[in-house]
Structure formats: C-alpha cells, structure tokens
Amino acid sequence: MKLVFYCIMNNFKGVGLNLRSMDDQKILFIHSNDLYAAVSHTHYKAFEETQTVLSRYEGIIRTIRRCTPAAPFPFNTIIGEIIGRGALCTYYEDLIRILDETGNKEECIITVYRSIQKKIKAIVKQSSKYETFGKKTDRSKYNKIYDIAGHKLAGKIHNYFAQLAVRSNYERLISNELLLQGYYLVNPEAIDSFRDIFKWVQKLYPELQLNLQGPQLPYHFNTVDIMIKNTPLYGRRLEI
Fold this sequence. Notes:
Strand content: 25-35%
Structural class: alpha+beta
Number of helices: 6
Number of strands: 11
Shape: elongated
C-alpha cells in the first residue's frame, strides 16, 4: 500500500481534524520534528482524472489550510509508504523553504492567446519603430517583426501582473497559439487587485484574448521532486 501526499505544514495546529481521502481513507498526519505532511493510504498507482477527484483533493488541502499555512503537492503525488517520514527528513530544508515561500498564498494563471497577424499588427503599429510595418512584403521579415513585437508585448503584459505577485514565472511565444503563459503567487489580500489589473489589461489590449485561471492552490511553486532510486515521484496539476 502506498501514500498519497496532499500537503506539508510546520507547527501543525489541526490535530482534531477528521478528514477522508478521495478513496474514503482516513487522512493521517505524519511528521518529522516540526514538519508535518497530510497523507492517506491507497492501493492506486494514480487516480482517475476527474473534476470530482480534483475537488475532493483540493477540498482536503483547503480545510487544512484554514488551520495552518500549508503548501500543496501537485495532484497525483503518490509515494511508497516506506519513505513517508523519511521523505520529510530527507527533503526537510527544501520543504521548509517552500512553506516559507507559499504559506497561505494563492496561484493565478494568466494565458494570452496570439491573435491573427492582422490584429497584432494593429498593436505593433502603435510603436513608431514599426510605422512602416504594413509596407513589408518579405514574409520572413514580416514574421520576424511579428515575433519580436509579440515577445516584447508578452513581457510588458507579464510585468503588469508581476507587480502584484510575491513570485512569478512565465513563458513567451510558447506556440503559434499562445503568446504568454504566466504563473503568479499572490497574497490573499491582493487577489481583488489582481482581478482588477486583469480587467484593465483586457481593456488596454482588446485585440488580444486573455484568460485568468484561479485563484487556486500554488502547485506551480512547489519545486520539490521526491526521488526513489533516482526516479521522481512528483505528480502534476490535474487539467480538465
């Protein structure tokens, strides 16, 4: 039988919690010194990826977070029972660092989709540097300028959101469809301001399609990969 890792905490204050797992197992709290982990036993190698399972998983973490700051593991993190407390000891410093960084913060994800070139062209022409952009006939030069402008635009949009985040990371020009994918770790009291900035950026660039996901648990800011025999046993965020 294996263990599902839900989240980690230090100085845990929710000893009286009575929680059940996705497969109706009792949630246990194992610890090494002052570092605790919420876990449950399971026979599964992974859980079926459904919204119901994800909601149950995240509901457990949020209940725990109401008692004490907790950093979630990515969804489907299942490890061998033999390294339960050993994992807390082995990765103690990294896990404490993540707790310090995430605490009770939330994650917001911004996605900006590339518009068709005619639309991005309208934005590019706002810069005097590209006033002759519409006269270009060389397709390779056209695409190059389009990518340069898109790269700068993605960085500019990222900076609007990053100023409200404790930590952030992002990718630009990910594909022909995606201009930007950004992850932002935000304090709970700044969530409303983050939403306001999102609405403002939408109005600033009506030619672009922006999407805000979250606030949600900060999966993308948990960088600890638990290893067994050089094999990482980290999970991933369930995407529906």
